[in-house]
Structure of Type II secretion system protein H:
Amino acid sequence: MPIWPIRRLKSEMRAPDAGFTLLEVLVVLVIVGLTISVAWATVRSKEPDLRMLSTQLATELNFARVSAIAENRSVAMIVDQSSRSLRSTSSRSGMHLPDAVRMTFSPLEGIGRASAGSGLVFFADGSSSGGAFKLSGGSHAVVVRVDWLSGAVTREEVRR
């Protein structure tokens, strides 16, 4: 046996198999997945969160109803389209809408008691003038209804 290193000819050396290892494929898939999730989050953040806003609106309405009962007087929820806000006559706080959200108020006609112009009134007995607030933006809308007899507040998602 010779003691010097054996040199192999290039023709004798085996070429590595062409292709990718499983680890390389997994790394690429993870990078693609992260890129897609960041892009999706960016697109979703441009649509307003109507569920959160409708929950906030329902909370404001329920608070006004409870205030009317507790204070034994009528409390109005006033919709101000110019400042894009909703406020109660019983508290200084209110709700401001983002630019991407549109809110419309539809009072009930001929049912319940008369409402105060561009808003809803809760009476001392817990009833209200009734009506519906529609929050719209993006691809869907949410309707928050106030029952005139009980003053109960309900929410409903509406697809366009």
In short: The domain at 50-159 is CATH 3.55.40.10 (minor pseudopilin epsh fold). The radius of gyration is 31 Å. The mean pLDDT is 83. DSSP finds two helices and eight strands in the chain.
